[in-house]
Fold this sequence. Notes:
Blueprint lengths: L1 H16 L5 H4 E8 L5 E3 L1 H14 E14 L2 E12 L2 E13 L5 E7 L1
Parallel strand pairs: 1-6
Antiparallel strand pairs: 1-2, 3-4, 4-5, 5-6
Amino acid sequence: MKRREDKIQEYFNSWLTKESAQLKDIFTNEVFYSECYGPEYHGIDQILKWFNDWNKRGTVFQWRIKHFIHEGNCTVAEWYFECEFDGVRDDFNGVSIILFSSDEKIVSLKEFQ
């Protein structure tokens, strides 16, 4: 479980540093990602485009994990998020439901605010 927790923390940290290089090591090529307010991304290429586009207009100040729950290939992470996007500052609590592949990469991530 520690390996999964580290992988999730690495992903959250990538938003703080605006570095996308490690995302291909975190997600499977066929990953499905659903944001808490509706948008969905299918595949690592869409995630990389979204990540790079978002970071041109926004900055994440905090994405702090409160705790994890593990069950089978699923990990749930409860977190606090704070950012600024297009000059508007926002913060909220949320939960991510994350499914892992057999090689411990993220195959599905669904966010809820």
